[in-house]
Amino acid sequence: MSFKRNVRLLAGTAIVWCAALEGAWAQEATTPAEPEAAEPAAQENDRRLSTVTVTAQRREESVQDVPLAVTAVTGEQMAALRVENIENISLISPSITFSKTNSPAASSNIQIRGIGTTGQSRVFEGAVGVFIDGVYRTRSGQALSSFLDMDGLQVLRGPQGTLFGKNTSAGALLLNSAAPNLDEVSGFVSASYGNYNAFDVSGAVNIPVTDTFALRLAASHSEQDGFLESPAGESEGDQNMDSFKISALWEPTDALSVKLIADYSKQDDEVGYATVNVVDGPLTPLINALTVANGLAVPSSNINDYQASINTPTSNKVEDKGIALLVDWDVGPGMLKSVTALREYDTVQNADADFTGADILNINELFNSQFFSQEFTYGGEVSGAVNANYLFGVFYSDEELDMGRNLSHGTQAQAFWNTVLGAQGVPSAIINAAPGEWAREVLVGTAESLALFTHWDFALTDRVNLITGLRYSEDDKTGSFYYDLFRDPVFDPFAIAGSGPGPEYARKFSDEAISGTLSLQYRLNSDVMYYASYNRGYKAGGVNVDASGAGVPGSSLNPLDTGSSADPVFAPETIDAYEIGAKVDWMNGAARTNVAVFYNDIQDLQVAQFLGLIFTILNSPEAESYGAEFEYTQALTDYLTWNASATWLPEASYGEDAGIGVLSGRRFPNAPELSANTSLNLNYELSGGKTLTGLVQVQYMGDRYTNTASNLKEDAVTLVNGNLGLTFDSGLSVSAFIRNAFDERYVMQHFNTPIQDTDRNGYVAAPRTFGVSVRKTF
After folding, report:
1. ∠ CA 73-78-84 to the nearest 5 degrees?
2. Strand-pair partners of 619
3. Are residues 119 and 708 in contact, defined by beta-carbon separation less than 8 angstroms?
4. Rounded to an integer, what is the distance from CA 205 to the centroid of its chain?
5. What is the pTM of this model?
6. Separation of alpha carbons 185 and 214, rounded Å
7. Nearest by Cα to 220 from 199, 250, 197
8. Of 701, 700, 704, which Cα lies nearest the Cα of 667?
9. Which of 73, 452, 479, 548 is 20–30 Å from 690 (CA)?
10. Helix/strand/coil for 12
């Protein structure tokens, strides 16, 4: 489909939607009013929706005044939806999805409007940036830590780069911790218990120390049995996490605010390698026989039974810690802000790398990221001949990556490879799959980034604003791979199969880029705003750091098999994003409708693939996505509010190109054509200082591809969630909750099962969960 035709389609959709909306508010806007004027009826309306304040443009303003697609929720709303970390972020908006497989550092993917960093890679930057207290998180998996003591969450859709230190090509998540205050001692404690032995406890306390200094302390602990179980009935994939945070606020004058935030989270559990078998391969009978010989039972072939069999319990240890210094200084005409951060993210996994009950291949994988960032911004207003809000910024970051994999043959590896390679004519006497360590891989990377950016919001008239921004980025990266050990480069089964030892290498990547934004905003009146925007997004390339990053050598026993070479350097990704939108408050302020239509033209979209034995990174030369979003909120009564949102993605596909194999012309993974949420929220005041609260939510996600290396799909699914509770004037609240009420069971992500040819396994979604919670504020 041509670009011009796509633009006409989106523009036509926008006109139809806006015309339909205009009919709804025509009675209120027959005679255009000044933007600041308010209708008397709206002032008297008890059901007028509250203003949602966001900082998407680095200043506090109503979400209805921001000329871009933003969804914002408070900490209380996150608690009601039980959005406790990034895993269930789609409860907030159907436009955003999250998925992960075995490694939190390499396989955690966030997508907005279908666009994101997909597949598994240790070195990918996120197309969707995660910013917590203004600090960029280099790995999406860092958002798997508990959203401890958060004040709110904002989802920004579309490329970002002229307002935030780190540029992103698809969008951003902004999370802000509850800040210390100087007023009074306050805080909360909460606890919940549910099925699968799910137990959570958390709390926070605010302590004013002096008139100018305050502290806020927060902590949480959570644990839960895994959703999968072995044929013997033992849970697989148990979770356990602890999080801590301390914030200090110092305000020596009205012009200066200094905030120091230190956080630490620790995960010590069994998450990552328990999966269900989805598609049997030709080696399945052999795997099943070895599983039984190993004293374990073969798991059920019915996916709905959620059974898994692994012979080595997974040990998954994750530590995420950091410190951030935030300084706001009012220096007269503008505000100077500084965000300084130092973080370390460390994972260690010991696991069953063949994902079966047979003892064939074991892995010890290490990942360590040490990250420093510094951002300075200066923003303010000018008035007179030119009226504008402005922002100037500079950003610098430096990351060091130390990674490694230690691979071991299990006690049944010899029997497995004797059978597999023997069928290809290889004498079993020469195959060396003796139990023990056979490879130690050392992987190292660095990433250094420098950027200058500016953003201007010009008030051309009382109704019309022109917003423009520009960013200059420089990125320098390195990546290297070598073996500390490869026990037998001739007769090891991986050498005979042609996948190792991979070529050692040390490569560099350097690039500079210009990106920016241009948008026009028009306010019909105080309740109606239109906007049109263009954004140029950019995501740096890099070096694929993996044992197969430079290719594979070919079989050690076949001189005619020369293997294949690969360039570990992958190209940067760019996106031209066009958007038209409208934001409308109507029914005298009791209803709110926001719509947006968008078109994204993407060049060199970065994609990672796991092919069962090797990890690759490729660039899709062309890709595109377009569609529309709809958000609606209405106060039906004084105590009942209806929310509805939908994302329609008729196109979200890679271009036709033989170089990207199975992905050529196909839709992106985890990008359904239609997804939607709708909910009813209850807040009914009873006598005696009590309030009845409740929520019923329905989620719909259309059928979708689930992987970048195969064409497996999952059918559409509908989930029902809910909670019901009581709150008291004393600050006590009790509630009962349920998620996935009808126990829909499905696969979130498929993958090519290692060393098993065409066999495919899958990571499953959470089944029905329910429980009770208690919270006390003071």
Report:
1. 135
2. 606
3. yes
4. 29
5. 0.90
6. 10
7. 199
8. 704
9. 73
10. helix
